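If you are new to this repository, start here. Below is one unmodified record pulled from the training split, so you can see the exact layout before writing a loader.
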Amino acid sequence: MDARFTAEQEVIRRTVRELLVKRCGPEDVRAAVRTGEGYDGGLWAALSEQLGLPGLALPEAYGGVGCSVTELALAGEELGRALAPSPLLSSAVLVAPLILALGTERQRADLLPRLASGRLTAALAVPGPALATALALTGDNGGAWAGGGRAGGVQARRVGDGWRLYGEAAQVLDGHSAGLLLVAAHAGGYARSRTLLFLVRADAGAGRGLVRARQTSIDETRPVGRVQLRDVEGELLGKEGQAGGVGQVGQVGSVDPVGPVGALARVGDLAAAVLAAEAVGAADRALERTVAYARQREQFGRPIGSFQAVKHRLADVYVGVRAARSAAYYAAWAAAAPASGGDTGDTGDGADGGERVGERVGGLALAQALEALRVAAGEAIQLHGGIGFTWEHEAQLYFKRAAADEALFGPVHRLRGRAADAAGIFSDGRRDVRGERGDG
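And here is the target side for that same chain:
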């Protein structure tokens, strides 16, 4: 594995940062979150049309750039540094890979080019506060999170040749403004329950049973909405009875048939890698601002950054951020790797040759990154003194980002618990030891 980034990847990082420095300062962020959509439409158009961020990890055949998750994570890191509100996470990271993996050729040809261009935004709607569960980040996603055959969640019922959806999903990222909703719903009743994904076009559903409203969120740069479905027509993603489509989640152009639950789990690992990079970018920026302030702020006739206690605290933050960055980069590389070993040659993502096995380490990287961001933001507030607690200062925005991401995709201890369960660190290990003792 070559851990160095390619020249193309460095260009992506640099151009995204240059654009955000010009157009996404603290005041721009505050103005953007006050809009109805919750983000700056002009900035989103620039990110889409000039830089092509929504289509970075999509195949060129569908209007994308044909890069990997690594490039998407690098762009996410720069967006995290600026706390830039945008529908990139909901559209390009959560929805587009699911359409690529499960959609029919007609659905992919119709939707992916528009998503890649940024003209169409999308949101993944799952019932209740179950996004982390549906993405298999905090536990097995094969359970009853889509309603379980009982009241609650979102239910799908076949009517003639189509489907009708009933129910409500809250805390949907960009759910109040997205032009396309991908709804996870429960179908088949109690006896033959299963989770399916349905496409709901916002323009067709508006006024016909689709009710959406923006909700108050901890972090305004992560706008969320409530989606109510009252006998709304939904289009099944993919063909009924077909496991999946072409195109593995996180890769370009490979064949990997998976069902909705399996595809959601793979998208969860991809999303966790991008989210980890975002959190690392935010933590790094919070640390930079704190170090700069510690060099300027004087107490007892000397900068507070010269005090040993402050140095130690900032050094701990620095180590945490660096470790989280390494984990996030590895998670992005692993998410782009094939699901089974094989000599892939030059993949263009900074890793050349060798046996590459698709490891699902995104949740563990996300846990480390969220913890690093929480500590960095907390120290930023503390070391800025009285001004760090004020609404006018930016330190509180980074702390809110850490809290909101942990609420939506965590918490940290459950992310780590899921990784430990998947690795069999506790349960399987104890059973093996007991078995060996019993056989002896």
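Two things worth knowing about this chain: The chain has three domains: 7-117, 122-236, 260-439. Strands lie at 122-125, 154-159, 162-173, 180-187, 194-201, 210-215, 224-236, 298-299, 302-303.
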